[in-house]
Amino acid sequence: MKATTISYVALFTALTAIGAAVKIPVPYIPFTLQILAVYLAGALLGPRLGSLSILCYVGIGLIGVPVFAEGGGFGYLFKPTFGYLLGYILGAYVNGWLINRFNLSTIRSIFFANAATLLTVYLFGCIWLYGAMKWISEAPLSLYQTVLYGFLIPAPGDLLLCILCAVIIQQVRPRLSRYINVKELNRPWAKPTL
Question: Of 27, 101, 114, 171, most Cβ neighbours within 10 A?
Fold first, then answer.
């Protein structure tokens, strides 16, 4: 990877960590601004590098750097919120793929890509929340409680961020295209020749 590509990935890794620091305590799932970085990483860096930046963030947190909303370390795998972090990785890919594949440029179309990203995050998050509460914490939640705490309570705030990011992406992406060639950045790595 080129130094500029590494810099872009590192920038969005850092933005995700900053988003985790801004949190509002809510039962089971704290409300954070991490999803902003997920939307932006996918839209501005494309699917491969966008998801790579979030994967780096998760990796840094798992090795012990306290960048997650509630600290860090390998033990975070067993927290009820870890599924949301996995959802962020795939969510950044989904967002970048939708926006680049269909060349989305209107606020409305970008909003729908962001909403698909959000649903991806919630799907992984709710499945992990349900399993972690049932088998790890041994304080099981019913399916209704899982959907309530894992989706319905945080959804309004995340939908507002979804709209805000659609406006930001629609304004910023065309301007950045002069400096960042998303298709070039997301080209598959060349296969080694023997």
Answer: 114
What would the two tokens of residue 46 be?
A: 């494309």
- CB within 8 A of 128, min separation 6: which ones? 80, 81, 82, 83, 84, 86
| Alpha helix ranges (H) inside 46-154 | 47-62, 82-101, 107-131, 143-147
Phi and psi at residue 68, in whole multiples of 5°?
-80, 170
Q: How far apart are CA 123 and CA 118, in angstroms?
A: 9
**First CA to last CA across the chain, in angstroms?**
20
**pLDDT tens digit sequence for 151-192:** 999 999 999 999 999 999 999 999 988 777 777 666 664 443
Inter-residue contact 118 to 150 (CB < 8 Å): no
18-39 pLDDT, tens digit per residue, is 999 999 888 888 899 999 999 9
Q: Which residue has the tokens 């409300």?
A: 31
The whole-angstrom separation of Cα 61 and Cα 85 is: 10
Backbone angles phi, psi at 31, to 5 degrees: -85, 125
In the three-class reduction of DSSP (H, G, I as helix; E, B as strand; rest coil), residue 28 is classed as coil
In 3D, which of 63, 75, 96 has the Cα closest to residue 169? Answer: 96
Q: Strand, coil or helix: what is 37?
A: helix
